[in-house]
Amino acid sequence: MTTSAIAVTGLRKTFKDRTVLDGVDLDVGSGTVFSLLGPNGAGKTTTVNLLTTLLRADGGTARVAGHDLETEAKAVRAAIGVTGQFAAVDELLTGQENLQLMVDLHGASAGDGRRRVTELLERFELTEFAQKPASTYSGGMRRKLDLAMTLVGDPRIVFLDEPTTGLDPRSRRTMWSIIRELVADGVTIFLTTQYLEEADQLADRIAVLDQGRIVAQGTPDELKRQLPGTHIRLRFAGTAELDAAAQVLADATRDDDGLTLRVPGDGGTASLRALLDRLDEYSLTADELSVHTPDLDDVFLALTGHTTEATK
Ligand SMILES: Nc1ncnc2c1ncn2[C@@H]1O[C@H](COP(=O)(O)OP(=O)(O)O)[C@@H](O)[C@H]1O
Ligand SMILES: [Mg+2]
Q: Are residues 185 and 284 both part of a single domain?
């Protein structure tokens, strides 16, 4: 049983007459990666802004790092770090100066501060560019510097709002490995993303946000299993075996070229056992058995009835 780093019930936010969050419930286990997944305009940044005390909610309750968001905002702020969707880096300062500024804000001693800056520059592979103004940095370098600045205070919970949007594949992978390292150190990550693959790669749990509501929540595999389309694939040694099996498994779809049968099933142990028993009963053997689940793009479409057009 893990404790909750973030627990949210009935969170609501309205801008003028536009309801942006319409009763959001979330639970993020300590030391896990939680991904809030949704297209542009779904309410991801609004959720992050509420949970990091940058905005005030119109309804609902939330505890972050064990503190009530409404009455203990200061304690919440002390426990968290936020890397916003738009980098908070000062363009006119060098990478080193940006980090030094954060260190100074946290009141470290001069020696400790310098060590911390050096260590963070190395960790984020920015040492080489430390003396260059941030305005000369690529998008990926800027994001890394921004995250390094967030980590100066050693936050136990880090909010990352679309940390890889617009990054090239290589910078995205670097960001992913940095996130994995943070988790290995016990940090809780609240990550928003428009990228289904990113949530699938990083998250222990995913909540799908669509028009201010959570339309699904679970592990990546749980979300994928909720869908029709999961099937078991059997591959046979030859056409004779395929023919025999196709007669027995009447609801399967056959692929003669691949010598395979696609058998509908949820991929759970009960349906697998039933399938194997049936093959056994007719003395049939398959060379290979695999369970195929849909990817998160399929999940989003099935859950919301529309695609994540914002990612296209
Ligand atoms: N300060 C604001 N005033 C009015 N509308 C806002 C404000 N902030 C966000 N919105 C609206 O709320 C919706 C959700 O925005 P946002 O949380 O930024 O979504 P996301 O981060 O998922 O793209 C959008 O339609 C946006 O236009
Ligand atoms: Mg946003």
A: no
Residues bordering ligand 2, an ion, CB closer than 5 Å: 44-45, 85
Q: Using one digit for the tens of pLDDT, what is the confidence trace for 226-240?
A: 766 778 999 999 999
Q: Are residues 45 and 167 in the same domain?
A: yes
Number of domains in the chain: 2
Find the mean pLDDT for residues 81-108.
89
pLDDT band at residue 1 using 50, 70 and 90 as cut-offs? very low
Residue nearest to atom 13 of ligand 1 (CA): 41
The CATH number of the domain holding residue 239 is 3.30.70
Q: Are residues 81 and 10 in the same domain?
A: yes
Kindly give the residue spans of alpha helices, DSSP state H, lying in the chain: 44-51, 73-79, 95-105, 110-123, 139-151, 169-184, 196-202, 220-225, 239-248, 269-281, 296-304
Q: Can you tell me which atom of ligand 1 is nearest the CA of 38?
A: 22
pLDDT at position 307, please?
64
Q: How far is CA 261 from CA 173, 235, 254, in A?
A: 36, 7, 4
Among protein residues, the one whose CA lies closest to atom 27 of ligand 1? 41
Nearest to 38 by CA among 148, 165, 159: 165
Q: Which residue's CA is the nearest one to ligand 1's atom 6? A: 15
**Which-ligand-closest: CA of 43?**
1
Domain identity same for 193 and 247: no
Query: Relative to the CA of 85, which ligand 1 atom is closest?
Result: 21
Q: With 50 as the cut, is the pLDDT of residue 312 above it? A: no
> Mean pLDDT highest for which of 156-160, 211-215, 297-301?
156-160
**Which uninterrupted H or E stretch holds 161?**
strand 157-161
What is the overall mean pLDDT for the chain? 90
Query: Cβ distance 41 to 20 under 8 Å?
Result: no
pLDDT at 189 over 90: yes
Residues 254, 181: one domain? no
pLDDT of residue 308: 59
**Domain encompassing residue 31:** 4-89+137-225
Ligand 1, residues at Cβ distance < 6 Å: 15, 18, 20, 38, 40-46
